[in-house]
Design brief:
Elements lengths: L2 E3 H28 L8 H28 L1 E3 L2 E3 L8 H20 L5 H26 L6 H29 L4 H18 L1 H18 L1
Antiparallel strand pairs: 1-3, 2-3
Amino acid sequence: MLELSESQYNLVYNSFSFVIAAMGAATLFFLLIRSRVAPRHRMAVTLTTLVTGIALYHYIRIFDSWESAFSFSGGTFTQDGLPFNEGYRYVDWLLTVPLLLAELVVVLKLAEAKTRSLLIRLGVASVAMILLGYPGEVADPDSASRWLWWIAGMIPFLYILYVLFGELGGSLDRQSARVRRLVDYLRYVLVATWSVYPLAYLAPQFIDDAATAE
């Protein structure tokens, strides 16, 4: 049974509160500025609004689940309430990750056939990555299946990187210097933020091993 100090619990609690406020503000901002954006870029703004709106909803649900999972007694928070729902994050990612990739493709204004091909392949790969990751997330940290699901999930992840930096890189040559810089920045931000997850996914395994060794 997980036990957290008051400061540990409040750190998570306040982090959720901060993210909810940020996602709510971002959703409102993108809604308000959409009409002021050039028509050719409004689809990208619409996708961004959907991403932040979906994330806002799911963070509220995760926040509620976190509150319901703990009770405060004797100066500590104990996870003895309703089970904390691990699935909310994956439901969120099933929607937001394909939309983020679609936004990156749409903003380039490539040929229709090329755009459709990229959207389909990146969408399928992102959904596969998330669906393959979830069974390992809920598996026992000591189970070998956790490693197998991690490897399986990394295959579509690496394919997404190949498309973003291989195929999409060739398409950037036909864009203006400003667009190339912007898309390069977005690609590296996506990779940097998404690369945290494969490491965090395995953290329980290494933490458990270290505790056992001690």
